[in-house]
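Sequence in, structure out.
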Amino acid sequence: MAERTIVVRDLGLTAYGEVHRLQQELQAERIRGERVDTLLLTEHQPVFTLGRNHPEPNLRATEAMVRAAGIEVAQTERGGDITYHGPGQLVAYGIIDLQAWGVRVVDYVSALEDTMFGVLGEWGIEGRRHECARGAWVGERKVGSVGLHVRRFVSMHGAALNVAPNMEHIALMNPCGLEDTEMTSLSAEVGRPVAVEEVAEAFVRQFERVLECEVAAWEGEKAIAAG
């Protein structure tokens, strides 16, 4: 197996556009061999992101209601359909040379799912896959999402795990474009509040285990955090 090391950067609470641009910069630098593999951890200010093949928001509410709720809408280059990000949700973006790691794209998607299952397991929750969409599910309720963009074997975007987000925000969309799909959170499933910081630590542990990699450094990066 190829040597796999990764730097983890904890960005704190951020505006989506800032981190999207950072991902693009890191991906370009990694393609040129100027940057090590990086895992970005963050919580975003409220935003609906759209997949590259779904430019129209798949909403359960009007766009005016979305604006009134203070939720941004952002187009992305990742796969999949509409996804929500907001405070109380852990988002993990891997900028990784998958070819150097010897990992196929489909296997990396599965590894991100397995990472979320491992995190849920630390709180006694059994996560599973669902035939209707990629991601992490608890029974028929979706708790985590996965979406990637890969260019010249280097990934960006990644996984989002609901810890304790604003579920009223999430209820304004059809998650991943699926009607009648119920979303849940780790806090709801365990019946008590869970801190995103705890889940971030668990995510890194499980990411290391599933992908058999080593964290070279874990750095705070509050300079990019949204004011």
